[in-house]
User: What shape does this take?
Amino acid sequence: MRVTPPPTDSWKRLLQSRWGTNILLLALAYLVYLLLRYSVLENVEATAFANADAVIALERTLGIYHEVDIQRWMLEHAEWAVLLFNWFYTLGFFPVILPIAILVFLVWPRTFSYYRDVFLISLVLTWTLYSLFPLAPPRMLPGEGFVDAMVALGPDIYSSRESQSFYTAYSAMPSMHFGWPVLYGVMFFRTRRRWLQAAAFVYPAILFAAVIVTGNHYFVDPIVGAIVIFTSFRLRNVLFAGAEPFIKRWRLQSEG
Assistant: This one.
């Protein structure tokens, strides 16, 4: 006679499965983001614009404040290229990284687990920086000569009210539009396949150009994004080294 397992056992098995564990982790991460989004990151407009002035002053001191000149030249002489960067900024981010993450999850679960850990650590660092240093992006500073290229040429999705419910407008630093492609670049490069190793440099490089040309980030933003990713790799290795036996047992259960 077949005995139906109690519902609690079914839920326990689901949470211990690879699917359940990862869905739970990502759901918790999104919940933390919402708590931050609607508590810490609200009503920070004045601080965000003051920080923008500080970033511009820093870049002027370093001699790297050329975003306005680059954007102006592109709009005057290569508007078609600006439009391409606008579309790549939109379609070259989540529509690329999410399907690749799902593919790695399905085909290379251990690889996915490692880079998922790095990704989650980078989320914590990113949210911390967003809350400590809210920053208005260049496109919000027409007085400096910046243009919101995506509003001007399209596709205009980030300035809509619907899209702003999913992200905060004052989160220019770090630029994870560059940071997470760097994470993927590390993963691509470690495959030792020539075409993926080439993509490891080309993909982040195009997004680096896109975040500047579209007016969404200053030069320092993608630099800080890359620092966040490499710090996350280091923290992952340090934090997980002592707990490796426990993690292996847990992963054998979650990946089963």
About this structure: The CA atoms of residues 27 and 33 lie 10 Å apart.
